[in-house]
Amino acid sequence: MIAATACTGSHMISVTNPSETDREEVMAEIDADAVVSMADGEPFRLIDKGGEEIPYQLTYDGKLIFPVSVKSGETKGFIIEKGEPAPVDSLVYGRFVPERKDDMAWENDRGAYRAYGPALQQSGERAFGYDIWTKCVPHKVLDRRYYDDKVNKISFHVDHGEGMDVYAVGPTLGGGTAALLDSVGEIVYPYCYEGYEVLENGPLRFSVKLTYGPIKVDGDSAVVETALRLAIAVLALTNGLRQASWFIVRIPKVITLMLKTDSCHMPTLRRMRRPETGRYSWALFHPTAKVLSINLLTNREGMPWGISLPQKDMQTVRISPIGGVQDGRKEECLILKAGTAI
What we know:
By secondary structure, the chain is mainly beta. The protein has helices spanning 32-38, 118-123, 142-150, 328-331; strands spanning 3-7, 12-16, 23-31, 44-48, 57-58, 63-70, 75-82, 93-97, 103-107, 111-115, 131-134, 180-181, 187-188, 193-201, 205-212, 215-217, 224-235, 242-250, 255-258, 268-273, 280-285, 291-293, 305-308, 316-324, 333-335. Strands 14, 15, 16, 17 and 18 form a five-stranded antiparallel sheet that branches. A four-stranded antiparallel sheet has the order 1-2-7-4, covered by helices on one side. Strands 8-9-10-11 form a four-stranded antiparallel sheet. Strand 5 and strand 6 (63-70) form a beta hairpin.
């Protein structure tokens, strides 16, 4: 771990390596506002103790990132000096590639990646996850590989001295695309992205947000549609990438489950442990111990959405996304009463 702190009085920041391992050419980050305020909001340079200017990037999410080498237990200081920073060659790069079936491709000085887009999905080809391209050179290779493959018919699936696309993704999650599991533990693949937004493009970090189309989980029985959004970042001087995932769940206003019961035999809501996974889920039980549903929607706290029973007609249970069970987690078994909404 590299810890960076700002010292406002001296217009310096310090980087400390508290680990037992020397860190060579790693990326440090610090809150950008604290550093920008030292320069009174003006352009600034980052200078080490030897007087050498250090390249940096102000990221879209409010960070200042810069490369450092710090030995175990060592602290290094850097001076914040007003003035235009020197131009630097970007170590990262990415772009939308319409000439290759709408790929979104990105790279740093150690590797390259791509996610598959709408045109590939329309072609019927089944490729879901990230593709990984090897590199044995620090300079950028994406544009050259795409151009040679399309124009010069030089395949990037063959190593011509700088690396290649060696990874066959196919119908898998590839290099780490996020996905959901259905009620029986099967992967629900997100297929290809539908839209993108490049958030930043160098010189030290490339970030892109990918949006995937809605998918149904458990078919129509759960009536749940989800849309996946990913924020992907690749840093210079690092192997792999960072990914943050959001699942946006769309549910109908009312879900109706058909039951056969009466006022003397109320359904029961229980928190149920699945022996095959060890995980807990909520289930509606009939008094005869028959499971009526094990796919109840839950809120962020893991509690079921509000459930109400009609006063007389006991043929349906209505599940509405209006609130959560208050004490279901504690009680483990909650008896629903006619005419009540919880």
